[in-house]
């Protein structure tokens, strides 16, 4: 089974979103932790979320993960038969 452009994009897209959710909590300070905040806002709301940096980090990290998985797939290390054996399922 060969990767097509649409398959590769779909896999990268899923990896990018998972990586985004993993990077969102890093470096966030809440209003409660700093003792500042506007009245009527949630004390757990971030003061400066830094989404620009997180989007860049997400793109870089997910590109590295995608490249490693693409190389593993191309080398034959990542296929259905091998993964089913690792999980203990007969193929």
Describe this structure in words.
InterPro entries: DUF1467 (IPR009935). Keywords: Membrane, Transmembrane, Transmembrane helix. With 91 residues, the chain is mostly helical. It has one domain. Helix content is 60%, strand content 0%. The chain contains four helices and no strands. Helix 1 packs across helix 3. The longest helix is centred in the C-terminal third of the chain and has 24 residues. The protein is elongated. The protein starts with a helix and ends with a helix. The mean pLDDT is 88.
Structure summarized in a few sentences:
Helix 1 (5-23) crosses helix 3 (51-74).
Helix vs. strand class: mainly alpha
Topology order in helix (H) and strand (E) letters: HHHH
pLDDT averaged residue by residue: 88
Q: Determine the number of helices (DSSP H or I, runs of at least 4 residues).
A: 4
Rg, Å, rounded = 19 Å
Distance between the termini: 17 Å
Number of domains: 1
Strand content: under 5%
For the biggest sheet, the summary is: none
The general outline is elongated
Low-pLDDT runs = none
The beta-strand count equals 0
The percent of residues in helical segments reads: 55-70%
Keywords: Membrane, Transmembrane, Transmembrane helix
Pfam family, one: DUF1467
Transmembrane segments: 7-28, 55-78
């Amino acid at each position: 089974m060969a990767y097509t452009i649409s398959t590769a994009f779909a896999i990268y897209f899923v990896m990018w979103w998972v990586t985004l959710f993993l990077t969102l909590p890093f470096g966030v300070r809440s209003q409660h932790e700093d003792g500042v905040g506007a009245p009527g806002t949630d004390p757990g709301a971030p003061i400066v979320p830094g989404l620009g940096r997180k989007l860049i980090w997400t793109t870089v990290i997910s590109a590295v993960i995608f490249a490693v998985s693409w190389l593993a797939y191309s080398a034959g290390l990542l296929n259905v038969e091998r993964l089913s054996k690792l999980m203990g399922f007969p193929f």
